[in-house]
Amino acid sequence: MTTNPYQVLGVSQNASNDEIKKAYRDLLKKYHPDSYVNNPLAGLAEEKFKEIQEAYDRIMKERESGYSGVGGSEFDSDEMKMVYNYINSGNNVEALKLLERIPLRSARWYYYSAIANAGAGNNVRAFDHARQAVNMEPTNTEYTNLLNQLEGQERRYQNNRYGGGYGNNGAGGFGAAGNGRGLGTGNLCCDLWCADSCCECMGGDLIPCL
Amino acid sequence: MFGYVNINKPELKVKEFYQYKAYYCGLCRTLRKNYGPIGQLTLSYDMTFLIILLTSLYECSTERKKSRCVVHPVRKQMILQNEITKYVADMNIALTYHHLRDDWQDEKSLAGLTGSGVLRSEYKKICKKYPRQCLGISEALDKLTECETNSETEIDYVSRCFGELMSELFIYRQDVWEDKLRKIGFYLGKFIYLLDAYDDICKDMKKGCYNPLIPMFSKESFDENCRDMLIRMMADCTGEFEKLPCLYDVTILRNILYEGVWTKFNKIQEDRKKEGK
């Protein structure tokens, strides 16, 4: 697809994610195959339907703060080249198996391992290994970029949290603990009943008394 | 299940809280209607999240009605029910069945035996209807048992069992959203497993039971390390969630994913501080 995905959805490049989702939903409804049964335009609508889906997927992918691609190196050993090929073809499991068999744990090894682990869903290990690669070769921009990308996802998460009221930093200003106790009694129905029956503004205070 | 996937009530608007509660009551009523009082006992917050997520994604037509029930005898309650509620109720029963069966095998507990006995015939029906999900649950729990037997401490390896279990439940239909729902369920499942391990660590240490966090426990930075891991899980979970075109009830969903899931963690930390852990 060479057309601009934003044009397909009729939104600007700067549209927020939620605006894109809204446009996507509206268009899908408009071109839904169910509305074109026994209609000569059915074929056209179906094509449009697919185009909208593709455009949406593409935008979401482009906006993802994921890995911007893996760089191979001409200095890689034959084994490491194979690892690189596995990773590039999305076969993270094989890449990990092969990495396990390589005894030399260079910075590059940790770099590849981080990528393959991230792809396989081993996000704790991916992070450790990305950090290890950077520690071993702090000047390598490929490694620092990878670490930045992984950290970027965490930053996005932390920034999106409104109150910031959890954690050990004493920032929890809105009584997270009291709330926790109320919702955590295990007596779910009581909690809800209480919250429901009491005045909303008092609800938070009453729950811990149960 | 565990009740870790919760709302953060103070941050929700009253309207949104009632909407959440209506989904929760809807699940409660469906469980009671389809599986009787025992079914109703399996009610959990975690599964309410799944209903809201799938309802928002598939924009299913949802029935809204007011009704009275035993728990709320005074005032009529708003309840929301749809095809997803039925699906999630079935999944809840399947999970509870396995959970109780394992309980019985582990500790020869009477509760486990009687509970799973009562649910067995229901579980068989659910298996016929949703073979992929039920196979997913039993395979994942077998793997988890294996990890426990081998005292496995590789965090990603252990927690992925529960992640895979949740993945299968989150995939309601195998369609264009399968991949994203799989990842959301996977990382949320890992989060739940790790939070559960964090919750149990003191008890497990005392009893000498298996817990994958034990090797980390002696470190000064234990709490910090656990928190970082949990943030990792939610960061990756929400990264996928934000790619789904969820518009309805999205504030509730975000409230749960960005704030509510920390309710339990905060409480554990508070309690430990008080006890001078």
Give the low-pLDDT segments of chain A.
163-210
Structural class of chain A: mainly alpha
Helix share bin of chain A: 55-70%
Shape of chain A: elongated
The tally of helices of chain A reads 11
Tertiary shape of chain B? globular
Please tally the β strands of chain B and state the result.
2
What is the gyration radius of chain B calculated from CA atoms?
A: 19 Å
Describe the structure.
- The complex is a heterodimer of chains A (210) and B (277).
- Chain A has 210 residues and is an all-alpha fold.
- In chain A, helix 7 crosses helix 8.
- Chain A starts with a helix and ends with a helix.
- Chain A is built from eleven helices and no strands.
- Chain A has helices spanning 5-9, 17-30, 42-63, 78-88, 92-101, 107-119, 123-136, 141-160, 176-183, 188-197, 200-206.
- Chain B contains eleven helices and two strands.
- Chain B starts with 13 loop residues before the first helix and ends with a helix.
- Chain B has a domain at 130-246.
- By secondary structure, chain B is mainly alpha-helical.
- Chain B is globular, with a radius of gyration of 19 Å.
